[in-house]
Amino acid sequence: MKGTAAALINVPRNEVVFLNASIELQCSTNSDEPISWSFIPADGHIVTDWLLIHGNFTAYSVGKYKIDRSIRGQYNLVIDSVDFSYAGRYRCTEGSFGTESEAELVVIGKDAIDFFFCDFFKSVTYLLCRILQISKYNLKMYT
Q1: Mean pLDDT (whole number) for 48-68
Q2: Which residues, in sequence order, are bridge partners of residue 18?
Q3: 108 pLDDT more than 90
Q4: In angstroms, rounded to a whole number, what is the distance separating the alpha carbons of residues 24 and 41?
Q5: Any idea where the domains of the chain sit in the sequence?
Q6: Residues 6+ away with beta carbon under 8 Å from 98
Q7: Is the pLDDT of residue 135 over 60?
Q8: Run of H or E residues at 79
Q9: Alpha carbon of residue 111 to chain centroid
Q10: What is the CATH number of domain 8-108?
Q11: For 10-42, b where at least 16 C-beta lie within 10 A, e where not — what string?
């Protein structure tokens, strides 16, 4: 847009989303500069993963994310089915060194694998305790 400064007009907001839900993080600009998206996972790694650079997906993000460009200047980041690996900080940047905005994505829900493991562990623990109690009882009877 001639005569106006480039700016982000829609920015991502902090979001809390349920496991397996879909989410769309907004980011759009009033300029012709493409948007880049980056991601820092919440798992403690401090390495930034680039998802979209100058409007093009990186090898890391292909198949994991979609971009909604239905309106001129819009580069909304779409996740169809969120899992815990998507939790973290997302940053959209206009152009190479332009305006940027950041938001946190928090994922909540039950992880079936963890609960299965816990149930299994509880069962094994219970069984071991029962065996130890029976052995202890039997030892007392014979001493």
Answers
A1: 90
A2: 108
A3: yes
A4: 17
A5: 8-108, 111-143
A6: 6, 29, 31, 33
A7: no
A8: strand 76-79
A9: 14
A10: 2.60.40.10
A11: bbbeeeebeeeeebebbbbbbbebbbbbbbbbb
